[in-house]
Write a structure and sequence with these properties.
By secondary structure, the chain is an alpha/beta fold. The protein has one domain: TIM Barrel (Alpha-Beta Barrel). The chain contains twelve helices and eight strands. α2 links the parallel β1 and β2. It is globular.
């Protein structure tokens, strides 16, 4: 097994249970996204996933789909997002990861996209609709620009879990439940067994996402995983409070981070 803990992303999982926050860029504006990301960090977020607005985000539930629509309507573009990330990088060294789909990367240009990631300070990308068999189309270029392509492992991946985990870098995004993103009242997937399978072949940190919204859920999952990912609950706060969401986000993320098992 390779020791990947020298990696910038993996380091945030080394000494504590990591809290990974997600928000959609440009909702309600790029300036507010910058403000919110810094508020998330102050509240205890160890890493932030930034969603690139896209018209067809197939893995997302209604909450994040609507955030994409609001961001696009407000004029969000990938170029504006890269400019915003450059500004953020003057204020924080916290790892930042893009969540996007393969189409926006292709449209932007694979080489151009990952070069811009490196120049702006993006550490990794998550591409939910990129099949393992097609990962090679971007992996070499991403790696050459020091950008991790984060591996997603779903409950349906049972026969492929170890194959997927062996090559994972940065962190492994373990999907807690079948279906699209969104808040869930309970998570019934046997995460312990899946995590045990991954641990046999990989030392890459494992963060669990999809459906986590309460401190109780976060505490329970962080007992086994290296971190938790929260998206829809954060995006819902932004949808409700808009430009005034900063303080509410801070309080919510602080309570979630404090709930994680030590």
């Amino acid at each position: 097994m390779n020791n990947l803990l020298t990696n910038k992303i993996s380091k945030v999982f080394k000494d504590n249970k990591a809290f990974v926050a997600f928000l959609t860029a440009g909702d309600p504006s790029m300036d507010k996204t910058e403000e919110f990301i810094l508020a998330l960090e102050r509240a205890g977020a160890d890493l932030v996933e930034i969603g690139i607005p896209f018209s067809d985000p197939i893995a997302e539930g209604p909450v994040i789909q609507e955030a994409n629509e609001r961001a696009l309507s407000a004029g969000a573009t990938t170029d504006k997002l890269f400019t915003m990330v450059k500004r953020i990088r003057q204020k924080t060294e916290m790892p930042l990861v893009f969540l996007t789909y393969i189409n926006p990367i292709f449209v932007y240009g694979i080489e151009r996209f990952f070069k811009a990631c490196q120049e702006s300070g993006i550490n990794g990308v998550i591409v939910p609709d990129l099949p393992y068999e097609e990962k090679g189309e971007i992996l070499g270029i991403a790696t050459s620009y020091e950008v991790d392509v984060i591996t997603l492992i779903a409950p349906t991946s049972k026969d492929r879990i170890q194959m997927l985990a062996k090559e994972a870098t940065g962190f492994i995004y373990l999907v807690s439940s079948l279906g699209v993103t969104g808040v869930r009242s309970e998570i019934k997937t046997d995460l312990k067994t899946i995590i045990a399978d991954i641990r046999q072949v990989s030392e890459t940190p494992i963060a669990v996402g999809f459906g986590i919204s309460t401190p109780e859920q976060a505490k329970a999952i962080s007992g086994t995983a290296d971190g938790v990912i929260v998206g829809s609950a954060i995006v819902k706060i932004i949808a409700e409070y808009g430009e005034n969401a900063g303080e509410i986000l801070f309080d919510y993320v602080k309570s979630m981070k404090q709930s994680l098992s030590v």
